[in-house]
Design the sequence.
């Protein structure tokens, strides 16, 4: 099944940039350039295959919080680094760290398997991954990662979250998936194809290493936002919807998610509100809670102003957020979801990112000043009810 067909390389700020054609071949692999290398997936000590993604090195989940909290922890106390080391649910402690299990109705299109998600609770990319897993009713365990020590992922060469480990019944090895978009694409491909060979599917998402105009190494996972399907079973109509889904999934990662930090840390008061919420999720000692709340919020308020400039947001960053939301709603149009009668992966991505700030002033303002609320509530209900678990997806992505 569908490895990707790539067109000829073109110059676009890098020496070699490959762009996927709108249709994917079910036979051939990625065309290589003599100056482009593809790093093979490698077995590790736990007999896993690691899919190393550096695609969103500046935006991968938890970056904003880790940066602010790390500085706050060094300048105040280490308690500031534990701001995202928290849970809304009771947790049991195992050898792998704090773990909770999401009990869902198992998707009809997946074989028996164990899925473990390593995350930060409030990370938008982790929320996006959970939205996908919950919608499709995939049972999974959650391991909350300490954002300072990251001891729970000390076994991994990849030190960001989310990370998902998949253990398929009858298989001796474990499959490690990194990067929220790659995780979602791989698992959805696993669902919609009949052969159910996860090891093979992972090869459809190779690590591509290139050099930019300055000779700096650039790493990118090919096909991050593409679900690989058999062309023989793909209708022309789905081909059009699929291209739209990819477009909006990229928009979430490249644009929409960057609206969050400048907005939730827009002012000192809002930064304090955000950290007050996070620190109250778990029982902190008085000193740890104070250091996390005031030290972390001060750092993030400063960083938010830099992010505003970096992403060229309006003076009132709320206006940029509202504009992005209106762009999304224009794309949805009169449909219930971007996917039509049911959410697609773009719907789940936008919902997942927004769910990470639900309850904040930013979220409340967005609901009050745009028409996002009806779509958000519909998508939330679909995710919470595991609506995707009741639909057969093989041959009908």
Sequence:
């Amino acid at each position: 099944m569908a490895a990707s067909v790539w067109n000829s390389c073109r110059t676009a700020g890098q020496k070699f940039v490959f762009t996927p054609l709108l249709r994917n071949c079910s036979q051939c692999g990625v065309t290589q350039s003599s100056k482009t290398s593809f790093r093979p997936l490698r077995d590790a000590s736990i007999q896993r295959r690691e899919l190393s993604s550096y695609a969103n090195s500046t935006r991968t989940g938890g970056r904003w919080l880790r940066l602010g909290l790390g500085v706050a922890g060094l300048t105040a106390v280490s308690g500031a680094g534990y701001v995202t080391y928290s849970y809304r649910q009771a947790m049991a402690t195992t050898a792998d760290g704090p773990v909770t299990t999401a009990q869902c109705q198992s998707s009809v299109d997946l074989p028996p398997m164990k899925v473990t998600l390593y995350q930060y609770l409030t990370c938008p990319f982790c929320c996006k991954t959970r939205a996908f897993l919950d919608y499709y009713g995939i049972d999974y365990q959650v391991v909350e990662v300490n954002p300072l020590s990251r001891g729970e992922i000390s076994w991994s060469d990849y030190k960001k979250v989310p990370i998902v480990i998949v253990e398929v019944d009858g298989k001796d090895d474990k499959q490690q998936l990194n990067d929220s978009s790659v995780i979602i694409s791989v698992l959805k491909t696993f669902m919609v194809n009949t052969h159910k060979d996860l090891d093979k599917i992972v090869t459809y998402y190779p690590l591509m290493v290139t050099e930019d105009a300055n000779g700096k190494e650039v790493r990118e996972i090919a096909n991050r936002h593409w679900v690989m399907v058999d062309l023989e079973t793909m209708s022309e109509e789905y081909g059009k919807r699929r291209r739209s889904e990819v477009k909006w999934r990229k928009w979430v990662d490249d644009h929409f998610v960057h609206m969050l930090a400048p907005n939730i840390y827009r002012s000192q008061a809002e930064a304090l509100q955000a950290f007050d919420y996070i620190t109250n999720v778990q029982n902190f000692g008085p000193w740890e809670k104070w250091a996390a709340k005031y030290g972390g919020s001060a750092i993030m308020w400063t960083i938010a102003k830099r992010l505003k400039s970096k992403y060229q947001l309006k003076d009132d960053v709320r206006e940029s957020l509202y504009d992005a939301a209106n762009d999304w709603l224009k794309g949805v149009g009169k449909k219930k979801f971007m996917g039509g009668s049911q959410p697609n992966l773009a719907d789940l991505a936008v919902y997942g990112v927004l769910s990470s700030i639900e309850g904040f002033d930013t979220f409340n303002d967005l609901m009050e000043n745009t028409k996002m609320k009806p779509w958000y509530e519909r998508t939330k209900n679909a995710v919470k009810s595991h609506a995707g678990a009741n639909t057969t997806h093989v041959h009908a992505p």
User: Anything to note?
Assistant: The longest strand covers residues 113-119. DSSP finds twelve helices and ten strands in the chain. The two ends are 14 Å apart (CA to CA). The first helix runs from residue 63 to 75.
